[in-house]
Amino acid sequence: MSGIAIVMLIVSITIVWGGLVASIVFLRRRPEVEGLAEDPEILREDTDRASRPHPSRDT
């Protein structure tokens, strides 16, 4: 391998692994919020839709 190929290999590895480390650090500092409040109307419609039979069923 030539010197330029080795330098490009090191640069690309640094970019990929650096991005992975940066994303892990970011998510550790600011974790995603779970259980966001949804519109109660949408939740009610989902519950109603789930209780109804599937539209293609004959029985």
From TrEMBL:
Region (Disordered): 38-59
Transmembrane stretches, start-end: 6-27
InterPro entries on file: MaAIMP_sms (IPR031596)
Biased composition (Basic and acidic residues): 41-59
Pfam (any one): MaAIMP_sms
Annotated keywords: Membrane, Transmembrane, Transmembrane helix
Protein name, UniProt field: Methionine/alanine importer small subunit
Organism whose genome encodes this protein: Gordonia terrae C-6
Taxon lineage: Bacteria, Bacillati, Actinomycetota, Actinomycetes, Mycobacteriales
